[in-house]
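Page 37, top half.
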Amino acid sequence: MSESFHFPMLSSERLILKQPTRADADAVFRIFSDPKVLRFYNVDLMGKREEAVALIESRRRRYELGYGLRWGIFLRISGEYIGSCGFEVWHKPWRFSEIGYELAQEHWRQGYMTEALRMMLAHGFDHMHLHRIEAQVEPLNEPSRKVLLKLGFREEGIARERGFWRQEFHDLTQFALLAPEFVR
């Protein structure tokens, strides 16, 4: 990356977004081994802590190679790791990215993901010079749909059986937000 691998840190009143480390592996494992968190997620449940370490390292390498940017979401007061969000696919020539995110179940419905994504989107438009940010959500994932709509994303339609995980195909609803539509 052009910033000599300087990972951006973002903060708000309640949250800090920063690069996760191996020290966060227990929290990552707890989230990725919770069937309720992963109900609509495109990965299998984790069975070992080592898988969490591998995920953290994989995301770090993707950033260093310029392919993506994934923050850990930490509570400002306690420093607790509660989830992550980021730009999974970053297509620089076309100035677009696809986002992904997850949050520990005990922190649902408290506005944390909306707060984290708002910071992340501002970074994407202002510093990564993105024009279009996409999200793909399973049609039954109403909480995720509501967060995206609250942030100004528009629903563009359903891609039938676009995803394949856990040995089955999944329809995905396509959402997109353009830079001029983003309200801070």
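Page 37, bottom half:
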Amino acid sequence: GQSVDISAPGVDIVGAVPLSRDPTGYSSGLTGTSFSAPIVSAAAAWVWTMRPTLSADQLAQLLRASARDIMTPGFDTASGWGIVDIPAALAAPTPAQDPSEPNDNVDQVRPGELFQTGQAPLTTPAKPAIRISGSVDVTEDPRDLYRIWVPANKVVRVAVSADGRAAARIWGPQTVSVNEGLAARRRDLRGTSVNGGKKGSAAYVEVLLTGRASDAAYVLNVTAAKR
């Protein structure tokens, strides 16, 4: 499935079991992701112990990028990116930081929803403009969504530099999800600029792939100017 990132042994496993099941305390021929998952978790713990400056997102990127590819070249729905490879993950270069992950939709960045504090806004009344870099890919991270502040009596504009591989658009303060229905979408989707009105308001910037490529590294510019 699309949710499989990487693979690990999970067939014909020897594992500890209750003595009531086997008097030796062990059983062989065990199968399932219940055995694969702790192997990946242990690999992540090992790599993070040796490379403690990695963020959680960088660690996940590293495990995927360094996995030993099997089956169809590249990502496939049976094995993900391949079999987890600890030596390769320890030696691989540090991936670029993708800020504010996870930030795929409004409920991940707005306070009081999936996360109590949400994500800090990129821009504030004291800092109405910013320039940041990030990345998106069709398999693991198809969009990045950022909270911003739109100052009163100003227009905020967004632009992305990504060689045409990614684009940016703004969603208004009432947005519940980037997957909302047509009526709400007509109300909330603002294009590449938004007006702060008389009081200012929150808004959301979405960076997404254009369809020209399966991944993109981008630089996002958020600017604010008087109307």
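Margin note: DSSP finds five helices and ten strands in the chain.
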